[in-house]
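Action item from last week, closing it out:
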Amino acid sequence: MKTSVYYWLVVSLMLAGCGRSDDAMEEQLRPVRYVTVSDASVFRDRSFSGTSKSSRESRLSFKISGTVINVPVQIGQRLNAGDLIAEIDPASYVLQAQQAQATLVEAQANDRRADANYERTKGLYANSNASLNDLESARAQAESARAVVRAASKALEIARLNVSYTKLTAAADCSIASLDIEVNENVAAGQQVAVVSCGDAFEVTLDIPESLIGSIDESTPVSVRFGAIPDKEFSGKISEIAVASAAGAAAFPVVIEITDRDPSIRSGLAADVTFQFDSAASKGGGFVLPVNAVIHDPNGTFVFVAEPGDADGEALVRRRGVTLGELSQSGIEVVEGLETGDRVITAGLSVIRDGQRVLVPSRD
């Protein structure tokens, strides 16, 4: 009798313990992380490489030819307006200016002599001591002498300008981006001597494939990163879009203005420009999700969606088959299977199943 009582007491305790364990397991819901599908996830990012340059970058050259005798600047040097960049030998141009000056003096003397002759001829003609033909000849000589003076004066002005052109100076505050000449080098008129960057505004030039050029405009979101400036992203905006493709390539030049100012940005830096394209407009609808949110198995491709549960903070896991689009830096595109407002689970996927109750954090 005593043994029977002990037996039923042990069985009762075991059943009670099992009941409490099941209740505890039932109450212990797993927390999961999720992203809410919204219109903001309709975008996909594409990156292209380009090169930075100053928004006010000038390629300088001499207007005349000659031999370089002075280059007082170095690459990277800051210049004020009027500072000397390079100088060519002015000797021949100074001689030309002196010759033009002498020619002008001679022309002015001839002009005075022709005027005096014209005035004397007019007096003789008034006294009937000179013919009309003599008067007209004297007047023509005076007018011709005045024309020669004007031409000689312009020639002297040009010669003096050529002398001034022997010095290449900065037109504004700027810095030397590159130098292409050396002392004693012969340069031709129009040959590039230096490149200067003025101001602190920079832009990036790059080529966009013809398949995407129609998807961008001045309002397309753009961000810029430089390999030489790690861990920093710069905002930008599209300032120029070519209407014709680059020569020999199926790509269109695009210019991105960097709206942020940073002393680390310089001309010639390699840049990665990221465009945020509207995939809904190009594909007829779609959302971009983190790659780890999508699962592949023999039954297909799917995601887990957290549907509202019976209590606050709880959700019911539902398996949802999806159709994928393009893979980009921002994630994988889902073109079918999701709707705006769906909560797609992104963490804890290996330990959940369809129909399971889970905990979801509040996003308030």
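Closing note: The chain has four domains: 29-44+285-359, 45-55+198-277, 64-88+168-193, 91-164.
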